Amino acid sequence: MDTKTLLEWSAKYHTPNYGSRAPIVLVRGDGVRVWDSDGREYLDFGAGIAVTSLGHCHPRVTGAIQEAAATLLHVSNLYHSAPQIHLAKLLIEHSFAERVFFSNSGAEANEAALKLARKYARERIASDRVEFVATRNSFHGRTFATVAATGQEKYHHGFEPLVPGFKHVPYNDLRAMERAIDNRTAGVIIECIQGEGGVNVADEDYLRGLRKLCDQSGALLIVDEIQTGVARTGKLWSYEHYGIEPDIMTLAKALANGVPIGAMLTRDEIASVLVAGTHGSTFGGTPFVTSVALATLTTIIDGKIWERAARTGQYLMDGLRKIQAANGVIRAVRGKGLLIGAELSGLVGPVVDACREAGLLVLSAGERVLRLTPPLIVEERECDRALAIIQTALGRVG
Fold it and tell me: For labeling, which of 137, 248, 313, 325 is most exposed (least CB within 10 Å)?
């Protein structure tokens, strides 16, 4: 099927919510590269929005997919399955947590976290402990509760009235958070790095202070690691950069390298309020997806891939800062590991388009931030090629 026809059919048959899709049809991937239906090759520095951290068609992941598909795709959570149990054990052994709930996506993991925090607060602290504090420029999902938690008005338009019970305060402002937390606060939901909000990195004192505020008030600290988790930031979990532990952590994106899965992790005491029948998921943690996630996470842990992400991320940020010094279009470079943002003086859209036309797929984070989230297996020579394309693209649009 020719590309023109496929794009026409896409415009005709899909709902129009993905109106900004790039005019290419991707058909194949291998490592850090993808190919479109016209046979053109691209360096993929978006990785499905920080999802394919081991790259496309990683042999260990592909092998797990083939084996799982030929063994057992689905059983409901009325029964136990071995891959789900092994994945839960691995997550617990390598995090602060003691209990895991599996879902299908990041938004669902955050929904579970919010439900858990509210139920825990109402039952263990006070019946009117029902509210949450989140931050401006945050992104926590597109379901009704998570879009209310999200601190960006553009995601709210048309869906009002929003689910009540959410306050939003400026990011990296501990005093604002202190003023917002009160005796009705069940929990605080935070990203260590706001990915969609512009790759804004939390200050160390901010998250440490937030942990103290939650301890003092009894509010639960929910850390949304959907984009930052699974080695993306140079640690297995981004909270490790700050010397703190959350009460609840949510995961998704990279956990199964492209197969849909979400997870909510917490401690025994908090998990105890999720008694039988209080929450569930038909597809959450199927044998198929947990087999793939188990292969993905094992590969990352065995190879200490976060160390590679830290090194390569520093190399890539150093390269961007060299471009910044030579070109006034870049105002700031920020991030951790391989979650990197370059704030521009102008709109980022034309830069994204110019990069794609030159064979590099990159992301935006808002109107003025170029976001790079390549697979964690990316090599320096591939970073060099990407940096050269970015420099040329900035020169053209600057």
Answer: 325
